[in-house]
């Protein structure tokens, strides 16, 4: 008969609990695996599966009871690391939503909104379309597998129980939020420039010929030209998203290396 004492049970629990905290927090923040359309049971099952697979290959874990004050500190540390890793690619993909909002406003589609369950707010149809295309491209480029590979490597560079994270790395993560606006505006710039020229031309035309109703001509013209330019943009969207994903993964590796540095 196999007997398991309390010490062995605690050792087994510690071996899988700390990785589960980091992986679970990552799955909550990751853009694809953490999507609201994925059931919570699936996320928990995937976190447990990855913890079981990674547990035997991890460096020596601290002999700290999970249900104690030091254990609470380690749990918070693991969750912060997992959330930081997942937020990087979520911020990267959010650039496509920003581009969709900018293009939609210029095309006159600001009224075409619907409730988005993953954000809990109303989002433009064009923004949602570009975001779903970005998610599919991210899946096609195996970005989710690269994220999991980087996550598994953090257990060697950021061992459990480190209890010291470089504060400058969190500042670097906050500054990376500018990617949402910089990359989003860069993606929307061709359409914004063309539609801005059309709006300026319609304004000059309205001043020279007041009898011409701008609202009856300008809106269909902006919408038609915007859809035509959006069709052209789709041909180069894959290359742009590939570079965006590459820069996001490079920053993620840089962030992990920055977190591994001692504070101070």
What does this structure look like?
The chain is mainly alpha-helical and 264 residues long. It has one domain (6-259). Helices cover 73% and strands 3% of the residues. The chain contains eight helices and two strands, in the order H-H-H-E-E-H-H-H-H-H. Strands 1-2 form a two-stranded antiparallel ribbon. Helix 6 (167-175) packs antiparallel against helix 8 and helix 7 packs antiparallel against helix 8. The mean pLDDT is 82.
Q: Please indicate the percent range of residues in DSSP E strands (runs of 2 or more).
A: under 5%
Low-confidence stretches: none
**Quick check: average pLDDT?**
82
Based on secondary structure, the structural category is mainly alpha
- End-to-end C-alpha gap: 53 Å
What is the radius of gyration computed over CA atoms, rounded to a whole number of angstroms? Answer: 24 Å
**Biggest sheet, open or closed, and with what strands and sense?**
2 strands, antiparallel
How much helix is in the residues?
A: over 70%
The order of strands across the largest sheet is 1-2
Q: Count the helices. How many?
A: 8
Order of helices and strands: HHHEEHHHHH
Number of separate strands? 2
Shape type: elongated
How many domains in all? 1
